[in-house]
């Protein structure tokens, strides 16, 4: 809180604080490149730089606006901020909160396939994080009001039988994570959410003169910490997995939505080759997706290229199997992922409502696909592919990004 009698900081003090902020960003980038850069070619160095930029944007939004007593839902990951293997179908928001506080979340659920709220203990990039509690908001029944209200706190209020999300009573600093998944980006309506404190006034005290500049000093360490942490998570997943060009279960390595399984793998194929994965559809499968990542753990841009496919635009073959094809050249297969000329890519699949499937993978010459895939496998022409991409591009832009 500002003391009216306190002297105002001089221009030199303000300039020095800004200089420390800028130097902190530079030092963070230098440290990341020194640790993670060796062994990467020029293209992979650029991928690493892109991941740092996403972290910088998230850090600036979070720390400039940081007031744990009066939080706001701010962008964390989406189709433009593509770090941390973000799901192309998902918008991720977060609100930094006071672990001792109580809050109310209100708004409209919308029509998205999935709306999940979680309380996460710790600060990503600074301390170890873990999911403490979870709430999946059920879809609004036809004809019913779309409004929702969720109480958040350490203990469920006496007599409250509505939606409730528990904070970790042993952690002072934590955040509320919001994830909402739309399979059809153009028609599903995103949630509208607001959060307000119940334990204090909505009116904050006036910020200290150097308040913003002091909080900016957190951005450099955050960029370094979170980027290094994500690279470590990626290495842990790959070390726990199988061979190149295989897909393996990494569910146990991730802070996940309950009931969702994850596949991961590294794909290295030539420009004249195609990677094929197939699995049976299990009973209860509510949603599936597959997308490609670069080698810095960022999802490839799926707003203008088909680097992601899901249960809306994808198809299940007549024999009850999902087949995914990865290649640089479009083979005219519905469930195709565009490798986009990257030398080495990763793949991430999500399976909601079922256990991890048995995935079988192989590499073939792209000209052999017609002979390898079943006759009933979904096909698509160039004009239809362009129409699908244009629709998804429009839909991605209409979703919340900032």
Account of the protein in words:
- This protein has 402 residues and is α+β, with helices and mostly antiparallel strands.
- The chain folds into three domains: 1-66 and 204-240, no CATH class; 68-202, Jelly Rolls (Sandwich); 244-398, Sandwich (Jelly Rolls).
- Helices cover 24% and strands 28% of the residues.
- The chain is built from six helices and 18 strands.
- It has helices spanning 11-36, 42-64, 211-216, 219-240, 369-372, 382-398, and strands at residues 74-77, 90-98, 103-108, 114-121, 130-136, 147-153, 163-166, 173-181, 192-197, 248-249, 260-267, 273-280, 287-293, 308-310, 321-327, 336-338, 345-352, 360-365.
- Strands 1-2-8-4-5 form a five-stranded antiparallel β-sheet, with helices on one face. A five-stranded antiparallel β-sheet has the order 10-11-17-13-14, with no helix packed on it.
- The protein is globular, with a radius of gyration of 23 Å.
- The model has no long low-confidence stretch (mean pLDDT 93).
The rounded distance between the terminal residues' Cα atoms is: 28 Å
What's the CATH class of the largest domain, please?
Mainly Beta
Helix content range: 10-25%
Name of the CATH architecture of the largest domain: Sandwich
- Taken in chain order, the helices and strands follow as HHEEEEEEEEEHHEEEEEEEEEHH
What's the count of strands? 18
Strand content: 25-35%
Query: Any low-confidence stretches, pLDDT <50, length ≥5?
Result: none
The assigned structural class equals: alpha+beta
Mean residue pLDDT: 93
- Please tell me what the overall shape is: globular
| Count of folded domains | 3
Largest sheet: 5 strands, antiparallel
């Amino acid at each position: 809180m500002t003391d009216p009698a306190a002297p105002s900081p001089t221009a030199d003090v303000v300039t020095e604080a800004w200089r420390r902020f800028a130097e902190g960003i530079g030092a963070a980038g230098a440290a990341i490149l020194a640790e993670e850069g060796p062994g990467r070619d020029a293209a992979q160095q650029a991928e690493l730089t892109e991941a740092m930029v996403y972290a910088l944007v998230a850090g600036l939004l979070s720390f400039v606006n940081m007031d744990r007593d009066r939080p706001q839902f701010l962008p964390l990951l989406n189709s433009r901020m593509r770090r941390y293997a973000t799901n192309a179908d998902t918008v991720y928001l977060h609100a930094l909160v006071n672990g001792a506080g109580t809050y109310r979340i209100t708004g409209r659920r919308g029509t998205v396939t999935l709306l999940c709220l979680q309380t996460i203990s710790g600060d990503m990039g600074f301390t170890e994080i873990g999911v403490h509690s979870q709430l999946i908001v059920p879809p609004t029944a036809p004809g019913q009001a779309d409004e929702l209200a969720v109480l958040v706190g350490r203990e469920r209020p006496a007599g409250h039988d509505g939606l409730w999300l528990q904070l970790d009573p042993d952690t002072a600093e934590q955040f509320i994570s919001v994830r909402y998944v739309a399979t059809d980006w153009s028609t599903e309506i995103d949630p509208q959410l607001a959060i307000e404190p119940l334990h204090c006034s909505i009116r904050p005290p006036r910020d200290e003169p150097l308040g913003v500049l002091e909080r900016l000093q957190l951005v450099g360490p955050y960029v370094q910490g979170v980027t290094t942490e994500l690279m470590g998570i990626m290495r842990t997943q790959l070390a726990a997995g199988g061979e190149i060009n295989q897909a393996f279960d990494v569910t146990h390595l991730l802070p996940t939505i309950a009931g969702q399984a994850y596949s991961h793998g590294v794909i290295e194929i030539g420009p004249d080759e195609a990677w094929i994965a197939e699995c049976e559809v299990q009973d209860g499968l509510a949603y599936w997706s597959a997308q490609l990542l670069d080698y810095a753990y960022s999802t490839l841009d799926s707003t203008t290229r088909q680097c992601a496919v899901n249960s809306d635009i994808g198809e299940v073959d007549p024999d009850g199997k999902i087949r995914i094809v990865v290649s640089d050249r479009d083979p005219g297969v519905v469930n195709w992922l565009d490798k986009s000329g990257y030398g080495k890519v990763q793949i991430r699949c999500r399976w909601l409502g079922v256990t991890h499937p048995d995935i079988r993978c192989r590499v073939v010459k792209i000209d052999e696909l017609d002979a390898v895939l079943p006759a009933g496998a979904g096909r698509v022409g160039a004009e239809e592919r362009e129409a699908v991409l244009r629709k998804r591009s429009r839909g991605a832009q209409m979703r919340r990004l900032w």
